[in-house]
Each structure stands twice: as structure tokens, then as C-alpha cells.
């Protein structure tokens, strides 16, 4: 193998022991030369700092193998997007609490992974979402982002106590059940504390009429995995637009029809290339991007658009 492979891992993640067993040992047995394989370890700083450090080591033509959850995949994808390097290809294997990247694009076996890397054949490409806050670049989101109640629910998975518990559990299904239980407890405790006062929303520079007076969540969905979750067939064939909705998640009973539509039909997302949101006055928000939750102070304006000029190639 003449290609240069960069393995991206987070040694502090709850699934790292599985990564050591199923990925690191597998690659070591394949006897890569020193100039063919390098490892980038996620550091205990911020996701953006890790993104910037990883972007510095990338070269055109590299192949990136992400062995971790969506947080690790998000850092690696952003590093590719901001690096400016050409012909980089990515492969995802899922070893996190949530693995939307891996489930969207990859088979998780070592043999399938190696075949994809050796062939170098591109399976698909992502046009990520570019997120700006108060007019300044914030982050790329290849798959999805949410703002509000559901975003703050994601923040609980960064808590040290929960992460310690999950790290001791090696069965993925059990980790998922415990994660969902923790999220459910948070929802019932905080669901009425996250009401947004929105001045206006525009889609493709046209005014968007809010379907509900009370909004707790803003949702931005991109990519094939999100199509399956949201039951939106348009996402499977249309990568030049993304799905948007403003939701009221606080009232469980009123949301039953909405939830049922996701099970038996389609959740109503509006297709668009660009969304602009202005709040009535600057406020603190929690924004969650593919599993990473961040609090941002004094937010008055948010812009989200699909990036036609950036492509992330997937093996």
C-alpha cells in the first residue's frame, strides 16, 4: 500500500478499548511502513483546537480512517474542510456512543475497511453545512446541527460521571440504552426552560412563516443518514439542499403526531440552501453539532448554508 493513512482516535473515549482491539491491532498486523501510517490522537482541549492541529498535518491525497464516534468524525471532517488540501478521502468506523457517520457510509468490519482503503474508490461525497454566528464562521456540519433543548440534552454526554460509566461498558447496545435513558431524564426535567424569542427566519433570503409561536429547537439536517432518521427521501437524492425546521419539543402530547409521522411517514422538513435566524435580543444558546454541544453567549444572528465549493470524499 503506497497511500498515506492517518488513523484518528480519541484515547479518552468510552469505546477506545474496542478501537485498540479491532482497529489498532488489525492495522499493526498489516505491517504498514512508518511513512504509510500515522496516528492523530484527539487531545483534551477543544474540538476546534483539535481541528486546527489536525488540518496542519494533512496533505493532498491522504486517506483518513476515523475510529471513534461522531465527535471524533466531526473533528476530522472539519480538519479536511479547512485544510485546503485536495483529493483527501475519508473512511469511518463507529466506536462511539453515537455513530451516525459510520452508519451513514461504512461497513464496520476490518476487512471491509481495508478493501475500501486499498481500492481508493469513492463511495459518495458530502457538501457540509457552514454555520456562522453573528456573522463569523463557527463550524462546518457535514451531517446535522440543532439549537435549543435537544442540543443541551447532548451536552450531558460530556459529563465526566456519565462518561466514566459508559467507558466501562463494552457492549454498544447497552451503552446506547444508558445514553438514551440519561437523555430522557434530562428532557423531562428541562423541557419547559428553553423557549426561544425569534424575530425572524429567512430561507433562501425569503421570509419563513413560523408554524408555531413557541420554538424550543432549530434543526438543520444534511446527508443520507439524516434522511433515514427523518424519513425524508429528498435527502437521499438531493445533496445541494438540506432540511430545516423550527420545532416546539416542550409539549410531549402535542408532539405525538409529529413523532408518529417520523415512524410511519415523513417529518416535514423544508428544503433550502440557506437559513438566516435573528433573535429579538442577544441570548445564550446551546448548539449541538453531531454530538458536540457548545454554549455561545450573546447570539443575535445565525446563518447556515450548504457549501457548494467544499466536498468531503467518502470511501
List keywords for this structure.
Diacylglycerol_kinase_cat_dom; alpha+beta; elongated; 11 helices; 315 residues
Q: Report the top-level CATH class of the largest domain.
A: Mainly Beta
Q: Report low-confidence residues grouped into runs of 5 or more.
A: 256-265
- Can you count the helices? 11
Task: Give the CATH topology of the largest domain.
Answer: Tumour Suppressor Smad4
- Give the helix proportion (percent range): 25-40%
Reported for the largest beta sheet, the result is:
10 strands, antiparallel
Termini gap:
16 Å
Q: What is the molecular shape?
A: elongated
Q: Architecture of the largest domain in CATH?
A: Sandwich
Mean pLDDT: 79
- Count of domains: 2
Query: How much of the residues is beta strand, in percent?
Result: 25-35%
What does this structure look like?
The chain is α+β, with helices and mostly antiparallel strands and 315 residues long. The two termini are 16 Å apart. Helix 2 packs across helix 3 and helix 6 (149-155) packs across helix 8 (172-190). The strands form 2 sheets. Strands 6, 7, 8, 9, 10, 11, 12, 13, 14 and 15 form a 10-stranded antiparallel sheet that branches. Helix content is 35%, strand content 31%. It folds into 2 domains: 5-121, Rossmann fold (3-Layer(aba) Sandwich), CATH 3.40.50.10330; 129-307, Tumour Suppressor Smad4, CATH 2.60.200.40. The protein is built from 11 helices and 16 strands. The chain is elongated and about 60 Å long. The relative contact order is 0.16. Pfam families: DAGK_cat (PF00781). It comes from Candidatus Nanogingivalis gingivitcus. Residues 4-119 form the DAGKc domain.
